[in-house]
């Protein structure tokens, strides 16, 4: 009886979450575009972009929660997949600049002209087409995750060792992307974007549309994760998380499951990065910084590991706090606050915000059903306790 | 070609001359053992006799340094990994009950069912009537029908042991390896477990490792006593327990 209630209450949580995201995705752009600037209810454009960033982080958090919360794979390098998706989108945006760049070269982006490159490197081919770039947003992070996971999971690298090599992976990419001769703009990264699909990226309408699209992506990502974790495959993932070798002895090929979910998660992170880049207007190697990936894990821990709503909520709450505190006198102390937050959550709310709320909700619900059953039994004069379980 | 022709032995499980050492410690030393199809065998032996290591070898967790391990007369188990061996039909219950604590009793059994275990199969899985009937039957056998929706972590120790036996039943393997099924059980539970294993033995080959002599006696099957990784004595419980070397090993020399 209890798990049935649990799924029902979770379903309610999921429905509320989806409705809220959908409402924000519609109302914020509408208010920004239709209401007169400066009016009380009008959301200013800078806030639309800021919240758009939070929504992208929420998608990244979902991706991390899918592998960490449900399958026990603690990736401390998920920022790499996010950044790769971002670079794929950035490459498209660079090629859209065309002759409007400083050097006016119709094919080569400015930084290549500056480096005296004569022709476009082969890996930049195709990025002038949106469909190709959009495909690469999924394929590049997905392929990297697949190869990385294939090697790591087949060799049964787990736990802290896996976390360490994911850190090494993102750090290696950070160093590679810093290099000018790597062909992605080196230290400066990709920026000065003009158009996306013919629309000016700076325009209010485009920003509002990007925000709405990010919300849509969050909804789709949530539904995909939910479909995965509520299928039988989701039960296998939890089994792997809780007792990996037991799952093997039942005849499950654990490495295949890990590989599947790790790859899906990397693709989701890539999409998040691709939506992030046009909204912030730049992608550079600092997105690969190991600290970014660790921060993303903290969002999930704060919101509630193993609850999808919690992961998304954690991303928004922590980043809102970050924006709030880093813009005031407390700015130098933000990293200490983040560290303290992580320690406090681990000690006091090990299930995170949503996990703790769910546990409390189930408990009070159980109490009230037990109480009403008891009073009903008393009224009927039935002495046999039917609610023994 | 007839499969029967290639069978090296008619035994369900055949171990011959198996050696394993960990850093110079000989955990298994020239171990040879055969289990006939449909047999139930009890394995006894003092701590460190190599009982659990033997199970690790059979289920692919540990690779032997030398020796032959054949399953069903044809399959060399030393070349396969845990998943493949489980798929072939060898199920294992661990010494420490290992159930999926954060999932319900019912889901534990569902995970154990020997149906399609591929990623695609589980992602697009739809429950069938036959599956839920099998789960119902197992629940009845292990007396956990009432607790089917409880989290496995909330079960008592004895119930967890049964749930794990139930998971073996759902897996429906040809050979069941049961490691210390009655550890920590009350006398009544021990008795019920013996009954349960006898019932299971009607349709499955079973190997039970157990310390509890009353329980082994109650099973009433052939007993193998291991010591220092090799077979010390084999026979009925009375024969084995009156064997001088067995007494020496158990009481110390």
Short description:
The complex is a heterodimer of chains A (389) and B (253). By secondary structure, chain A is mainly α.
The chain-level structural class of chain B is alpha/beta
Order of helices and strands of chain A, N to C? HHHHHHEEEHHHHEHHHH
Share of helix among residues of chain A?
over 70%
Structural class of chain A: mainly alpha
Overall pLDDT score of chain B: 90
Low-confidence stretches of chain B: none
Describe this structure in words.
The complex is a heterodimer of chains A (389) and B (253). Chain A has helices at residues 2-34, 45-71, 78-97, 110-114, 130-154, 159-178, 204-230, 232-242, 244-249, 254-280, 290-303, 308-326, 334-348, 352-380, and strands spanning 190-191, 195-196, 199-200, 282-283. With 389 residues, chain A is an all-alpha fold. The radius of gyration of chain A is 23 Å and the shape is globular. By secondary structure, chain B is of the alpha/beta class. Chain B has 11 helices and 10 strands. Chain B has helices at residues 3-6, 51-58, 82-88, 105-112, 119-123, 129-141, 157-171, 187-201, 213-219, 237-242, 244-251, and strands at 13-22, 25-35, 40-44, 66-71, 75-76, 90-93, 175-179, 205-209, 222-227, 230-235. The longest helix of chain B is centred in the middle third of the chain and has 15 residues, at 157-171. Chain A binds chain B through residues 1-4, 228, 231-233, 235-236, 238-239, 242-243, 245-254, 256-257, 260, 388-389, and chain B through 59, 61, 81-83, 86-87, 91-92, 94, 98-104, 107, 110-112, 114, 117-119, 122-125, 146-147, 149-151, 167, 171.
Record keyword descriptors for this entry:
heterodimer, A: 389 residues, mainly alpha, two-stranded antiparallel ribbon, 2% strand, disordered C terminus, B: 253 residues, alpha/beta, six-stranded mixed sheet, 11 helices
Please give the structural blueprint.
The complex is a heterodimer of chains A (389) and B (253).
Chain A: H1 2-34, H2 45-71, H3 78-97, H4 110-114, H5 130-154, H6 159-178, E1 190-191, E2 195-196, E3 199-200, H7 204-230, H8 232-242, H9 244-249, H10 254-280, E4 282-283, H11 290-303, H12 308-326, H13 334-348, H14 352-380
Antiparallel strand pairs in A: 1-4, 2-3
Helix pairs in contact in A: 1-7, 2-7, 2-8, 2-10, 2-11, 2-12, 3-5, 3-10, 5-10, 7-8, 7-10, 11-12, 11-13, 11-14, 12-14
Chain B: H1 3-6, E1 13-22, E2 25-35, E3 40-44, H2 51-58, E4 66-71, E5 75-76, H3 82-88, E6 90-93, H4 105-112, H5 119-123, H6 129-141, H7 157-171, E7 175-179, H8 187-201, E8 205-209, H9 213-219, E9 222-227, E10 230-235, H10 237-242, H11 244-251
Parallel strand pairs in B: 3-8, 3-9, 6-7, 7-8
Antiparallel strand pairs in B: 1-2, 1-4, 4-5, 9-10
